[in-house]
Amino acid sequence: MKLDRRKVIKSIFGGSSLAFFSSSTMNIVYAKENKFKVMNKNIKQSVCSWCFPQFSLDELSKIAKEIGLIGIDLVPPSGWKTLKNHGLKATLCTPEKYSLTKGWNDTKNHENLVNEYSKLIDLVADAGFSNLFCASGNSFGMDKDAGIINCEKGIKQIISKAEKRNVTIVMELLNSKVNHPDYMCDKSDWGIKLCKKIGSENFKLLYDIYHMQIMEGDIISTIKKNHEYFAHYHTAGVPGRNEIDESQELNYPAIMRAIHSTGYKGVVAQEFIPKKDPISSLREAVKICDI
């Protein structure tokens, strides 16, 4: 199954909007933008490709490079050559196809996942990248403690290879209240418990700030207390998953300062769905996080 995220946003951009932001007019829009670029570099930033479907990966790469981003998130192997052509990294790699609902928490999925991720670990390492996305899957009535046992059993079959190849398997925290009903890894405590069970520096969490604000709040305290378990961060405005400007409830400069204070050397990826001009919104989000 292709990225579920793409299905979510297709309805947001109607035909006229997509036409306006087609590649033939992109340069016109781009020329009107402010020219902010990353300046402070205390926070390395990237952007999630699925949030900007009006641009091809090549077009988004050009924009990202000009703004000063180091790469693009959630890109499968088929897109890595395009990123490298622009001097960018795949800051969070994915399989070509994957499911958020059928994941490591179900032993019936283990054979296929172990085979696929064993190959992917080599591909990621050989490409010079380091982070590889994974999902817990939905509960489907399963007890959450049983899900931890199953995830541990499956992921431990690939973790030694990940350690040898210096690849970090990163499980995303998603909200089950609004966007991903029944998703199992929906609280930081659950994910951290799994990290402790696996007991490897090569298995960590993607702390999605948007999702965790919806599920539990207390963002800054959670980051400061548990940062050792977080290998990656995503942004978006709450409510709505849109721009991270003053229209929403999260204070992203303060959150970025908290992340930086932990000594974090990884990447923060912008994962909001723009309601306004996409390039202006992306530049503004990068500026807000450039503490």
Task: Characterise this structure.
The protein is α/β, with parallel strands linked by helices and 291 residues long. The chain has a single domain (42-289), classed as TIM Barrel. Helices cover 44% and strands 14% of the residues. The protein is built from 12 helices and 8 strands. It has an 8-stranded parallel beta sheet with strand order 3-2-1-8-7-6-5-4. Helix 11 links the parallel strand 7 and strand 8 (267-270). Helix 7 packs across helix 8 (188-198). It is globular. Residues 6-33 have low confidence and may be disordered.
Quaternary: single chain
Provide the domain count.
1
Strand order of the largest sheet: 3-2-1-8-7-6-5-4
- Gyration radius (Cα, Å) is 18 Å
Kindly report how far apart the N and C termini lie.
Answer: 37 Å
Major sheet characteristics: 8 strands, parallel
CATH topology term: TIM Barrel
Please bin the fraction of helical residues. 40-55%
Question: Shape, please?
Answer: globular
| Secondary-structure element order, N to C | HHHEHEHEHEHEHEHHEHEH
CATH superfamily: Divalent-metal-dependent TIM barrel enzymes
Overall SS class? alpha/beta
**Uncertain runs:** 6-33
What would CATH call the class? Alpha Beta
- What's the β-strand tally? 8
Give me the number of helical elements.
Answer: 12
- CATH architecture classification: Alpha-Beta Barrel
